[in-house]
Design a protein that fits this description.
Radius of gyration: 18 Å
Shape: globular
Strand content: 15-25%
Oligomer: single chain
Helix content: 25-40%
Largest sheet: 8 strands, mixed
Number of domains: 2
Number of helices: 9
CATH superfamily of the largest domain: HAD superfamily/HAD-like
Strand order of the largest sheet: 5-4-3-2-1-12-13-14
């Protein structure tokens, strides 16, 4: 299968590798294993944090290297090895929090603490289902204090109103890199703000540097606005049919939806 033109496959998770029910089609999982067995690593690049990425990947037997939080963390989910991590400076975090609060929305802050991953204020704006699912790893905190003292990796609101979230993303400006994407699990849209200059592609660069791979030989596949930097930089870009127009605009190939195992078409491209 391998012709040497592609050294790495990078794939989005929700809406690309997995369907809205968070399931990965058996033919898709088999295609991933075939590519890896041929000597081409497959890295998942997702807006999810490590724990929630594992919820989807583990049942399919696909735990492995992943770029998460839209590029803020790169970690091998099999052994916990971290190959990339980017956090906000206190000054930038303060500005991002101010943009959320000025719009009347309290974000979730992702941190890496022993007993908590999501820190929230008394009135978090994220979807109630998101909070309920993550209750065991969520703690209430003074967000203004957190941005001064803790390395914050991302700010997020899950399942919110798209127009309101776009306004916040615009207000963040140069303090962070923001993207608004449809939320396939909870409905509505999700805003995630990561440190300035951080994207899924910056995580790819870190992975290639550690593994000695050529970043000019990457095949990438995605469906959302948070995949644009990834698709624009890849040698070969694939987008999912029905994906965000900005993702489709960068596509060399369009594949079917994950419920139809569209991802398996990558076998013909490597």
């Amino acid at each position: 299968m391998r012709n040497g033109a592609i050294e790495l496959v990078v794939t989005d998770l929700d809406g690309t590798l997995s369907d809205p029910a968070e399931k990965i089609h058996p033919r898709t999982a088999a295609a991933v294993r075939t590519i890896v067995a041929a000597g081409v690593p497959v890295v998942v690049a997702t807006g999810r944090r490590p724990r929630s990425a594992s919820w989807v990947l583990d049942p399919a037997g696909l735990a492995g290297p992943a770029i998460m939080l839209d590029g803020a963390v790169g970690r091998d989910l099999r052994n916990g090895h971290t190959f990339h991590r980017a956090a906000f400076t206190p000054d930038a975090a303060r500005l991002v929090l101010r943009a959320f609060l000025a719009a009347g929305l309290e974000p979730c802050l992702f941190v890496e603490h022993p007993n908590a991953e999501l820190l929230v204020g008394p009135r978090p704006a994220t979807h109630p289902g998101h909070l309920a699912r993550n209750r065991a790893w969520t703690a209430e905190a003074d967000l203004a204090r957190v941005v001064e003292t803790d390395p914050v990796l991302t700010f997020t609101v899950v399942g919110g109103d798209a127009a309101a979230l776009v306004e916040i993303a615009t207000a963040v400006g140069a303090a962070g890199s923001a993207s608004v994407t449809p939320d396939l699990v909870y409905g509505g849209s999700t805003l995630q703000v990561r440190p300035c200059g951080i994207s899924k592609w910056s995580g790819v660069i870190a992975f290639c540097r550690e593994r000695g791979l050529d970043a000019d030989r990457v095949l990438a596949v995605g469906d959302g606005a948070n995949d644009v930097e990834l698709l624009a930089a890849a040698k070969v870009a694939c987008a999912v049919d029905g994906g965000h127009p900005s993702a489709l605009a960068h596509a060399d190939h369009v594949i079917a939806q994950p419920s139809a195992a569209g991802w398996a078409a990558l076998l013909d491209l490597i």
